[in-house]
Amino acid sequence: MIEHASKETGQEIVKFAVKHFGCKVNQYELQAMRELLIKKGYLPVTALSQADLLLVNTCTVTRASAAKNRKFIESVLKRYPTLRLVVTGCYIEEHFAEYACRDRIVPVRNCLKGSILSVIGAHHRDGTATQPKSPSGESAYIPLQVSEFAGRTRGFIKIQDGCSKFCSYCKIPFVRGVSRSRPFDEIVPEAERLVAHGIKEIVLTGICVGLYGRDLKDKVTLVDVVKSLARIRGIGRIRLSSIEPEQVTGELIEAIETSKIVCPHLHIPLQSGDDTILSLMRRPYSAAYYLSLVDVLRRKIPKVAISTDIMVGFPGEGENEFFNTVKLLEHVKPMRMHIFPFSPKEGTRAADLPDRISAQAVKKRAGFLKEKAQEYARLYAEDFLGKRAGVLIEERQDAKTQLFSGYTETYIRVLVSNACRDDVGGIKEVIVNRVSGQEVFGGIVKNS
Ligand code: SF4
Fold first, then answer.
1. Considering the domain boundaries, does residue 287 fall inside one?
2. Is residue 246 part of a domain?
3. How do beta strands 413-416 and 439-444 pair?
4. How many whole angstroms from its chain centre is CA 283?
5. Could you tell me if the CB of 209 is within 6 A of ligand 1?
6. Which of 47, 51, 162, 224 could form a disulfide with 177 if both were Cys (CB 3.0 to 4.6 A apart)?
7. Using 50, 70 and 90 to split pLDDT, how confident is the model at 126?
8. How much is the pTM?
9. Which domain holds residue 245?
10. Where are the alpha helices (DSSP H) in 212-358?
11. What pLDDT is recorded for position 135?
12. Which domain CATH number covers 51?
């Protein structure tokens, strides 16, 4: 039995811990489910050795992440023989049948995260992985929402789920469904709650935020969300987590250009700089389009920070195709690049494509681009040497160095030498005075 009696009320209580893998959407959802459990009387703990239940939000974006999730689940089951695992997220969605018949595991479908309490309850009552029929038909379904990110200065708001784009390598539309937007009138109150709880920077997240509003009756867009949030009293910054190239509209560029609140930082996944590969990936833009978008952004918002994702070793990516990506990146010089080796996902079109690239070539290309990523990040940071930038002070790096870390609006992480506890949660004017390898150092300007 996992319950213990509470001395005060005589009611049974369950201690639970949480763990998330993957993207910011997963982080948001985990926090929302955590709040549902707490409201119901579950007690959060950090140490697994004290927990009766572990809630895990999983990820399957690459083969490596799926393997990591599987390994984690198995090792926790082995190490903590009485712990019960409530597992949800994209990796579980993909392997639902397998986990539905495992002891001590309660799998929860992605669409039922809001019904997590009734799924756990049903499992506890009859020991099966019975899932309520659907979110709309389930009375215990509660839309996911958050009130706080305790001890944090940056908080996420999920405004959209799923994706309707079906890029040929991606499993997300299959495990999360097509794009669904959150009702517009839920978003501002949630942001207000977070700001009231000390969140200074709101990060708008979703699987494909640029699709926001397209499925709603009211004609609202991502720009409407951004503009409404920017009016909230006390909000320091709004950041977009990621946006697809073709979704960066003139209206959005103007909203960033004219606002002091919206961060001039856009994470725009490129994936490949070769048109043939982009078309095999079913990405709806060309290399020339991406380049012209970057040029427009840099002309209109001179301090804009551009970061990106690149996939290496997609089927058919020969030396010439890879070179086209390298050439494009050399022009763009993103301030941050995430490099992903292609991994075939069962059920996707790309999994059946011919002309697979050898593991050796993929490793070599990924290694090359990782070095390039470091070079571009350093060059970008060095450009700030001697200049002032607002840094949202987040936390102390470690007790020994006494350095506090925080991010500029352009997403450079700065280690600040003269900050103190009272500065945490404030946006301070910092002079960048040193760049060493991948680390950037600075000091707060007095009286800022
Ligand atoms: S845009 Fe493409 S890669 Fe991104 S979630 Fe949608 S299908 Fe996947």
1. no
2. yes
3. parallel
4. 21
5. no
6. 162
7. low
8. 0.89
9. 145-263
10. 222-230, 250-257, 275-280, 287-300, 319-332
11. 45
12. 3.40.50.12160
Closest atom of ligand 1 to CA, residue 173 = 7
What span, in angstroms and rounded, lies between the C-alpha atoms of 78 and 75? Answer: 5
Average pLDDT score over residue span 288-299: 98
Q: Which residues pair with 392 in a beta bridge?
A: 407, 427
For the CA of 271, the nearest atom of ligand 1:
3
Neighbour order of strands in the sheet with 336-341: 265-267, 305-312, 336-341
Share of the chain above pLDDT 90, in %: 82
Pocket test for ligand 1, best of 164, 208, 212, 270 (most atoms within 8 A of CB): 208
Judgement on whether residues 106 and 55 belong to the same structural domain of the protein: yes
Is the domain of 226 the same as that of 166? yes
Span from the CA of 153 to the centroid of ligand 1 (angstroms): 29
Query: Cβ atoms within 10 A of the Cβ of 357, count?
Result: 19
Residues 6+ away with beta carbon under 8 Å from 7? none
For position 398, what pLDDT does the model report? 73
Tokens of 176: 């999360």
CATH number at residue 178: 3.30.750.210
Is the C-alpha dihedral spanning 351, 245, 323, 364 positive or negative? negative
The rounded Å distance from CA 374 to ligand 1 centre is: 25
Structural domains counted in the chain: 3
Angstrom distances, CA of residue 220 to CA of 65, 228, 245, 337: 34, 11, 20, 31
Residue 323 Cβ < 6 Å to ligand 1 = no
Q: What is the pLDDT of residues 384-442, one digit of tens each?
A: 999 999 999 998 877 778 899 999 999 999 999 999 999 999 999 999 999 998 899 99
d(CA 376, CA 4): 54
Give, in order, the Cα–Cα distances in Å from 120 to each of 54, 58, 99, 317.
Answer: 12, 17, 14, 46
Atom 2 of ligand 1: nearest residue by CA position = 167
